[in-house]
Amino acid sequence: MQLRDALDDYKRHAGDGTRFPGERRTVSGRFSGGNGRLVHVGDDGELRDFGYPLTGRTGLVRSRIGLAVGDEVAWLDEAETSQRYVGDTALVETVHETPRATVTRHDLTLGDAHLTRASVEFADGDVDPADASLVVYARFAPDGRDDRVGQLRYDDAVEVYHADERDFLASATGFADLRGQLPATFPELLDDDPTELPRDRDGDRYEEERLSGEVIADVPFDDGVATVATLLTDRAETDREAARERLADLFADLDDVDALAEAAADALPSVPESAPARESVVADLRVLSLLSAPSGLRIAGPDFDPYYEHSGGYGYTWFRDDAEISGFLLGAADAVDLDLDDWHARSARMYVDTQRPDGSWPHRVWPRNGALAPGWANARIEDGPDVDYQADQTGSVVAYLARARATGVDVAGLDATLVAALAGLDRTLEPDGRPVVCQNAWEDSAGRFAHTAATFLEAYSELARHGEGLSVDALDDPDAVPGAASLPDDLAAHARDRAREVYDALDDLWVPERGCYAVRETLDGGIDDRLDSATLALAAAHRSFDALGAADGEGGAVDDERLDRLVSHVETVVDGLSHETDDIAGLIRYEGDGWRRADQLSEKVWTVSTAWGANACAELAALLAAHDDPRAVEMTARARDLLAHVSPGGSLCEPTTYLPEQFFDDGTPDSATPLGWPHAIRLATVALLDDELPQFADRAAADDD
What we know:
The chain is of the alpha+beta class. The chain folds into 2 domains: 26-266, Beta-galactosidase, Chain A, domain 5, CATH 2.70.98; 278-696, Alpha/alpha barrel (Glycosyltransferase). Helix content is 35%, strand content 19%. The protein contains 18 helices and 29 strands. Strand 23 (520-521) and strand 24 (527-528) form a beta hairpin. Helix 7 packs parallel to helix 17 (676-691). 54% of the residues are buried. The mean pLDDT is 94. InterPro entries: 6-hairpin_glycosidase_sf, 6hp_glycosidase-like_sf, DUF7997. GO terms for molecular function: hydrolase activity, hydrolyzing O-glycosyl compounds. Belongs to the glycosyl hydrolase 15 family.
């Protein structure tokens, strides 16, 4: 998104009650892509690239497509439009009903290429197809620039370049006409009204034909079909001859809808027909693939606010979100019969590669290469105190890597990474058994949080369960990792002792008056007893801890008093954060949450919190079932009720099958869409309910009757 576009959107939406001006929203429309370039196909048909964090290439920042008949152009974004995914794929079909014709488009992103195939059926038999063409307006921003950009012209393609990035627009049928134009001028930017683009050709501005990233092309139809493609390249990796050959091959190989659908199907993991809630599972895997870089790291969501006007940006990898997603996928793969071995290995490899020398992981990184990304929680890299550090991120990564090791994921350096991480966890655990003062999961306050403690409990428990054979000897130089040299010989037993310390220390955060665990101990030593959906992580963490006792034949490590407290906590949080209007139902993030309310007076509902509630109830139900506790039935029913809100057909699941981060009370979706984290939670919860708790489904239904 360029500043010109942000200002244009600001003019269009300033003062709106549920839209934040200056953003490039993705709450409608669908994405195409997977493991690389990410292209948004708006519900009006506009194409925009969102893949810079994944590939380092900016590509398309604006576009329009129109149908020209003679001298008249009908822009398809002004026509009545419907849209869907084709089957289980990321092939997007968009149908535009113009006054003269029906235009059916198929959009597919493969690697760094995107194809748009448009077929036209004229309602008026008097129209001569030879008089019609597809009009394509495209603005590229190679290297993220909209200045100092040039064009090279070929018979069937145009190359837009700056320094390193070279972007191509090509047509299978050539160009009947091709022209450029300069971006919005200063007077246009300062005008109160937004600028309508593209403009008419200006004969006095000869330089605009070559000195901009904006192209307007007339593409002839051949037997009612016109196909255009864009390709993003780096000059050091792909020369222009190779780029043009790639485009020619794409046109030759993908010359009909069936070929596009077949190529799209190959890009995503297959889902068995027998999978539970199959539509939901397909949608979740599609989203997680869309948000993934070739490295395996994922952006949290498409970056709708790159200028940080209303947020801190979303097009980065947070190790909390990413490791939680990896863990959910690892747990769900066997239950749903998914082949995700490559995904598991890529994630583990990147976590090994991005670990810091002190055993921790940084705030956020660029997913394409793991380089440090802009952030505000890099205290362990900067000088000064460590308060602005998010210790839960390290806990989440450790829990995943320990589980991955146990399932046979084998990447170089994994054992050394776990040993260094164990030393890092120890150094951020206070003598009282709870983690140090740090930032919370929501990144908006500091203290000693129950959620952080939950991630430590889970991390230590998973290391204790799966740490057999771990040794300090895995480190090349133990003295180079703070605290590693003083670790004992039996690291699994040490992790078990630490897990018990955290388990016992959680009693310090119990609030009997509310029947729940406090969200945090504040900086002045007080107890913040607000309800917070992040504390729902305690359910899964205790299930991991309980498995330690079960492994020893002791029937589980969680005692009866803790079970009672967990049940009370989960019920209190779910009931206390539940929010319902005529349009939506779900959980708010936490009591007093004021972020992105706009004109709304109350907290907004979050899909992450709602899905987390469903998962926590399911995890707790499984824990209760392991203890032969009859409360597992009711907790399973709660899980299913909450899951319904974020499942296809639920009020928090868009017709696209996407889960936006937030919703206003009137049902307007907001913020990053789709957000990867709730999709992974949804997938894991579906798998858990089907794989481990099916015996309670009929009993819960009978109780309802």
